[in-house]
Every structure is written in C-alpha cells, then in structure tokens.
Amino acid sequence: MIIAAAQTRPENKRISQNLDDHYRLIELASKNGVQLIAFPEMSITGYVRETAAQYALNENDPRLDKLRTLAKAHHIIVIAGAPVQMPSGLHIGSFVFFPDNTQAIYTKQYLHGTESDYYTPNLNYNPQITLENEKVSLAICADIDHPEHAQNACKRNSTVYIPSIFFSLNGISEAYDNLSRYAKTYSLNVLMSNFTGIGWNNTESAGQSAFWNAEGQLLAGLNKDSTGLVIAEKNKNVWSSRVINEN
Fold first, then answer.
1. Among 83, 125, 175, 230, which residue's beta carbon has the most beta carbons within 10 A?
2. Which residues contact 144 (CB under 8 A, 6 or more apart)?
C-alpha cells in the first residue's frame, strides 16, 4: 500500500492554475505507485475567507472533472480541498474522488478564528476510506487542535489519519507535537499535507508535510519551501516513508 501527501504552493483565487498543480502531482504520484494522494486545505482555491462564497465549488462542479478523470485513469484516490457550497451551508471541505467514478466530501468539523463568519462546521460529512486492509479518516486544519477528533477516528477503527492543513510557521511546531501524540496514543499512521509559500493575509505557510507511524515516530517530511510529495508505504505491515522534492 502506498499513499502520499502533496505539498503545493497555491495562488489564492486562481483555481485553474492551482488545478494544474494537482494534475502534475497526481501524475508524479502515479509514476511512484501511489494509490491515494491528499492535498492541503483549500488546495484548489487557495485559502479564502472573505471571498469564500464567490469561489466555492459545488458537489458536481465541472471544474473538478479532470480530477475525476485522473482518479479513474490512474486508479488513485484523490483528496483535494476547497470551499464547498452544499444544501447544509458553505463549508470548508475535502473532495474525495475514487477510481470507480464515485466521490465523497469531508467537511471541516472545527473552525478557527473568524472562519465562523463565513463558513459553517458540519459533522455529518465524515467518510471513512477503505484501502487494502487500512481504514482512513480525514481531517482539515483546526480539526487537529481538538484531540477528540483523532480519538473519534480511533473509535471508528481507523488506522490512517490524514489531515489537510494550512498552518503557518507560528503553528507548525504545535501541529507536529499534536500529530505525533495522536499517532502514538491512538495507534494511527498520520499523513499530513500542508501548503508552502505565501497564503491568505500575507501569511507564510510552514510547509513540512510529513508522515508519522503508529508509534509516533516521524519517518519523513518535506522542508518549508519545496513542493513535492511525502510518500508512505506499507510492506508486510511495516511502514516506511520518503520524500520527492520538486524544487
């Protein structure tokens, strides 16, 4: 089993350009045998708040068609983030595209700061992905500030926990500590995907996407500035990890 976190440098509100980054990294992941690739929070739009409704996507948005096509063509599960307009409200979401042409949506459960002025949290969209013998739970950014979120993944018998985040340099150290602790406490293999570059409100992203095994050991991580992949592979029940730096 091979999974990957993508570290991207999105440009806010430039959906077409950001999607091109997704296509490139999906192709790179496929060449390395990856079966699931996860992108950061709001990877499609860049992190947006005030203009969230203007740049939101919907469940059947045609701009996502190529992601659906690549998931099928490369037999890879693709997890990509964006604001999502749904009947239940405007949410921060992760689209999940499966190789069989089905899809699911995960919605952020815990909002941060003024996100609640623009978005609604939602607990009802919480798919669990089965891949080989692993069960995968998702998270988005501030979800990982709440230990009960990872605990709930454990209660569902998940073995892999995948947070898609936008963390700055100020917050990444705490994120690392939390994710290592969750991995060890709840026996979760943790694969985290973060931005690099300058994001919302001129905030510098911390990068450092990484993988921890279920003992809480950090096995591999990207640096602050590179785009690329963190690849985690399970072979005979032992996990290993490596990185591919694009720049």
1. 230
2. 150, 163, 165, 175, 178, 179, 182
Task: Enter the pTM of the model.
Answer: 0.97
Helix, coil or strand: residue 158: coil
Q: Which two tokens stand for residue 54?
A: 């203007």
What single-letter DSSP state applies at residue 223?
Answer: -
C-alpha distance across the termini of the chain, in Å: 26
Residues facing 164 on adjacent strands: 140, 193
Quote the tokens at residue 108.
């952020």
The Cα–Cα gap between 197 and 237 comes to: 35
Sequential pLDDT tens for the chain (247 residues): 999 999 999 998 999 999 999 999 999 999 999 999 999 999 999 999 999 999 999 999 999 999 999 999 999 999 999 999 999 999 999 999 999 999 999 999 999 989 999 999 999 999 999 999 999 999 999 999 999 999 999 999 999 999 999 999 999 999 999 999 999 999 999 999 999 998 887 889 999 999 999 999 999 999 999 999 999 999 999 999 999 999 7
SS3 category, 188: coil
Contact 3, 191 (CB under 8 A): yes
Q: Is 87 exposed, middle or buried (0-12, 13-18, 19+ CB in 10 A)?
A: exposed
- 172: CB partners within 8 A, 6+ apart: 194, 206, 208
- Which of 141, 136, 113 has its CA nearest to residue 126? 136
Q: Which H or E run includes 22? A: helix 15-31
